[in-house]
């Protein structure tokens, strides 16, 4: 792994940023804002059906039961959730891992990219509010039904990164099995970064390499 033109792509949550990607509080807040925008009053049971993160049959039926278009309602709820999570980043709730500092030198020799299942607005807010290396490509998923279906392990956004950077090979550093699978489907080498939260996982997809720290990338890439 010594090619100078190899792109090096990263997942965000659990790789660059500490903590879980998002939590139910943000989705609940997004739902509350959506109900206000729709001027819609629902029962507790109806709210529970509308609160599910997944765009699935249960959510569609819950929307139909209260007389709203499922796709439009989901898109609006996602947009409000995206804003809530971005506000959380702006407030300093999310912190980066210390070893992210080691990537600055890597950026001098390789094109770096950031590709996440988190909302695109949240990812860009993270880039704006944290001292991250200069990424040549930054992409989170679009809010809404289409973006939901393009989440990893779908390789859509990884393929977009590879195409935008003019590369045909590279690495994707992630912390989950879905990251490794998406990398494989995009023609990339999936690298598993071990953190405290995933120290014991045994992914069904074999990684091209495993790292204990982002600092180990220099050695992996022959730098």
UniProtKB/TrEMBL annotation:
Any one GO molecular-function label of the UniProt entry: phosphoglycolate phosphatase activity
Keywords from the named record: Hydrolase
A Pfam family the protein falls into: Hydrolase
Any one of the GO BP annotations: DNA repair
Family statement: Belongs to the HAD-like hydrolase superfamily.
Protein name: HAD family hydrolase
